[in-house]
Design goal:
alpha+beta; four-stranded antiparallel β-sheet; three-stranded antiparallel β-sheet; 10 strands
Length: 134
């Protein structure tokens, strides 16, 4: 490859790197907030939420749990440690796999660090078999 061709290839590569860097989201949260579901939108059906467990509704950033039969709770799905999305609900806890934080399905309280605060509660209504944000 001659010197002119080598310079052209290097210049094209540098331009591509600059273009990609221009698309970065430096300084923004790891998981930008998703648009909230309208209050009248059905988030889940009661039959979809296991007793002693829960379901993560990622698009609405909500976790719905059913600690005991017929009792439904809702919390933000954004971990209070580094704002990662929680990943699972099992064993009586809402689990963030980014750094290992765990939250109680009854009240969102921290069960395992490093999360510094509980998950914020969300208000829901249960009408028939539909669960909606209040």
């Amino acid at each position: 490859m001659d010197e002119a061709s080598r310079r052209s290839v290097l210049a094209a590569g540098a331009a591509a790197v600059a273009a990609v860097a221009g698309c970065s989201t430096y300084g923004e949260p790891k998981n930008a907030p998703a648009p909230s579901a309208p209050a009248d939108a059905v988030l889940a059906k009661t039959g979809d939420i296991p007793v002693g467990g829960g379901v993560i509704i990622g698009a609405s950033q909500v976790v719905i749990t059913q600690p005991t039969a017929g009792t439904f709770k809702a919390f933000t799905s954004v971990c209070t440690h580094e704002q990662c999305q929680v990943a699972t609900v099992e064993g009586g806890t809402i689990n963030c796999t980014c750094h290992g934080s765990k939250f109680d399905i009854n009240d969102g309280s921290v069960v395992k660090d490093p999360a510094p605060q509980p998950l914020a509660a969300k208000q829901i209504t249960v009408t028939g078999d539909s669960i909606q944000l209040a």
